[in-house]
Amino acid sequence: MREPPTREARTLNSAVSVRLALTVALVLAAPAANARTLLEYKHYRALSIDLVGRMPTRDELAAFEKDDFDLDRWIDTQLDARGYGDRLTRIWMDTLRLELSPVIQLRPPSTMLRRVMIQGPDGPVYVYFRPGQHRAREATDGDFCLTRDESGLKVLPNQNKPPVGMPVTVSKTVLEANTVLVKPWWLYRDYRNAMPVLHFGTTWTTADAGFEPSDDLLVEADGKAKTVAVRVCKEEAQTADSGLVSPRAKGPWAKQHKGEPIACRSGVAHAMSTDCGCGVGLERCLPSEGVKKGDTAFVSASRVGLGVEQPFDRVEQSSSEWTKLWLAQEASMYLGRIIREDRDFREVLTGKGTWINGPLAQFYRSSSGSGVGKMKQYGLADDGDPLFDPGRVPIGLLPHDLSTWERVESRGPRAAGLLTMPVFLEKYATRRARGAAIYSAFLCKSFVAAPNVKLTPSNDPNLMTRPGCSTCHTTLEPLAAWFSRVSEGDIRWIPADAMPIENPKCKLDAAGKAPPSCRDHYDPAFSTKEHGVLRGAYASHAHADAGPIGAGEELANSPELASCIVERITSAFLGRPIGSEDAALVSSLREVLTSQGYRMRPLVRALVKSKAYREANDLEKVPQ
Amino acid sequence: MKRVLLAAVVSITACFGARTPEVVPSVPVASLPGHDRLAVDTSPKEGLRMVPPEAYVRTYLQLFGGLAPLAVQKKAKGGDGAQLFDAWSDYLATLGFPDDKQDLPRATQTNALMVATFERLGAALCDRAVENDLRSKKPLAERVVFAFEGEAKDEASFTTRFDVLHRTFLGYPEKLAPGRAARFYKLFTDTVARHQKDVKPKLAPEETGWAVVCEGLIRHPEFHLY
Q: Is residue A480 part of a domain?
């Protein structure tokens, strides 16, 4: 047999040539007494790839060749290490694919600062503002804080379009009456101090290696001077935690609640109160480099296949991409910690806690309730019952603390492992997508209609009974009902007291129509003249009441969960689908998993010591 | 005979097509004529596993001296304009990494583009390793790939050095792959001979020989499969 390297590379697809080469080697190799066999070397290499995360080094091979090398002890050591955790985390991240598409834009108006370049008295100046901000001056209410007469510019509501008009020089008096200078969090480590001094790139030299504002945020509008403070419309610069609903605020809800207090972190506060700004150092808001598509704010990784601390690139990205990166990292960190700390794997479905870093702390303190505006017609001023209670966010975590991850013991009473994490709820944006995702990922089942199913034309809104549809939807609809109280495409909890499953306020009128304000959340197809029915809840009121917690508990108690976990891990480690020939192995591993409290370490230990794994690359066992 | 049978089956189906099909009770396979001694093969039918791209890249980083991906990118690119390496983002998809943002799953089997990427990355690693290890005259302990010294004057001295590379890339001693050292020695000597008359070569003939041996091993199917 010849092995010219160039040919070998070309024939990599053909496992036959590999099999032949290795079989010959296996047959001809006659190891000396006490020497390791080829199969032992191959087993050790496979263990290193699966548990350490790379091939063994020469030094590691030398240690392996020593007479006193204890493979069992070595395996136990690796099961405490990072590589093993990464390997198992990958299996679940591959299954759930918990990263968010570039199509998804997280730009809550209540937390996103836009930037406009005006002509100041001494040259061009950037001014930051929040679209929709309720202002003291009626002329600029809900808009940029300088009028067109003052700046020469008309700022359009569409954030992707630049202002129109010819800039005129804004007088110093007008500028100072309507804007203030702030030392923002993205430039100062000590932004919470009265007089911040630790400035990014100059006096703040210990910034987390991954934290870096984009170039445009570091330079003034003249393109030369370093930015040491940013000019912000004065309402946005306010630091209070709560304000009062203004008598001038628009809409029936505002009229009903005028003069009442409102939390400034609420998603509607900026539009309802002139008292609510972005907080100390603008920490409740995220910057945007400019009014254009593809604007950037931070330099961050776009590909993190080896983990966020070992990025493959560093590119300038928008605040939306920045937030999405950390939401995905939360899920990865959550899975990794559960695996590395050898916790009960069912926590993935039922755990109340999580681990968060600085950007996530900032998100959960300020952005997570930002979509509440759609529910104010039900009397809600803020998300009083959020999936992640902002009061439980560690106070000390600053937005720049990228590599500091702190344990949050409980996110709140609604939390249920991955199922209530924003990345899961945004990735699987609909109730049915969420139900199908957990069914597939944790029970290893999928929805496939039988080949003889006929989709008879029907107007039956109940998919559990509609001919044809019912084969899948009889199972799917009750699964989807678990997520009836989490808004679709969002992470807002729909509270039962303000929005019951059967809501008389949303009943159908004489013409069979529901009130327009109810249509987002109540399904006219299932509503009656007595009450509206919460969307998705028709399949199971009990599931809707229990919420994602109920889904997590049901999955955790399902006997199919253990089989699914074992099949996924075994298939990944053996590198092939699990078949009938593996029944005995799967059964024994299932016993290990369930008897050891659903901990991954005993399962993987038993798997890598199994005959099937040891001989997975023994080509003598493979029929030629 | 088969055609006759097929025609009979078709005509029978046509005759009775409108009727409800009969339920044929299942019987054990062994009771069917000719099936009583049928061997059931329950051995796995899959071939070797592909090394996960994460493990491939971590190994690659380790072979570059344990650097971070961006540091390796910089070092592999170098400043000599050799264009040995572009950017990681150009290679990740072809190496089989999943892209969960775009819902692109990980590749679990090799393909032609992947093999081409292995070749490109392998060439970058081996050429830079020649510069860093052989030419720099670093102490042996600091050499990640070419951890040996002296010329390979004959097959025996080549084999001693080849064993170092074989362990580095394939994870076991060369003596467990009989005949391989001899074939690589021929590749080495042929390469050295071919480059004796190079004008202004980037690498000396023997350095080129070792780079080619290194590339042969890092492109070897055993490196990418396990």
A: yes
Please give the structure tokens belonging to residue B70: 């961006």
pTM of the model: 0.88
- Alpha carbons B160 and B213: distance in angstroms, whole number: 13
Q: Determine contact: A55 vs chain B, CB below 8 A.
A: yes
In terms of domains, do A538 and A571 share one?
A: no
CA quadruple A610, A614, A616, A618: dihedral sign = negative
Q: Are residues A545 and A602 in the same domain?
A: no
Q: Which alpha helices (DSSP H) does A506-582 contain, by range?
A: 541-556, 559-574
My answer on whether A494 and A455 are in the same domain is: yes
Q: Rounded distance, CA A430 to CA A490, Å?
A: 9
Residues A306-355 have pLDDT tens digits of 999 999 999 999 999 999 999 999 999 999 999 999 999 999 999 999 99
Contact A55 B59 (CB under 8 A): yes
The verdict on residue A144 lying in a domain is: yes
ipTM for the predicted complex comes to 0.88
A128 burial type by CB count under 10 A (0-12 exposed, 13-18 middle, 19+ buried): buried
Query: Counting beta carbons within 10 angstroms of the beta carbon of residue A466, is it exposed (0 to 12), middle (13 to 18) or buried (19 or more)?
Result: middle
- Total of domains in chain A: 4
Looking at chain A, which residue has its C-alpha nearest residue B73? Answer: A312
Cβ pairs A/B, distance under 8 A: 192
Host domain of residue A78 = 5-96
CA distance A14 to chain B (A): 9
The residues pairing with A199 across neighbouring beta strands, listed in sequence order, are: A188
Q: Which sign does the torsion angle of CA B55, B61, B64, B65 carry? A: negative
Within 8 A of B49 by CB-CB distance, chain A residues are 574-576, 616-617
Q: Do A1 and B97 touch (CB under 8 A)?
A: no
- Cα A346 to chain centroid distance, Å, stands at 19
Chain B positions touching A54 (Cβ under 8 A) are 55, 58-59, 62
Contacts of B108 in chain A (CB under 8 A): 575
Chain A residues closer than 8 Å to B85 by CB: none
Three-class DSSP category at B108: coil
Residues of chain A by 3-state class (helix, strand, coil), percent to 5: 40, 10, 50
Query: Chain B residue closest to A17 (CA)?
Result: B221
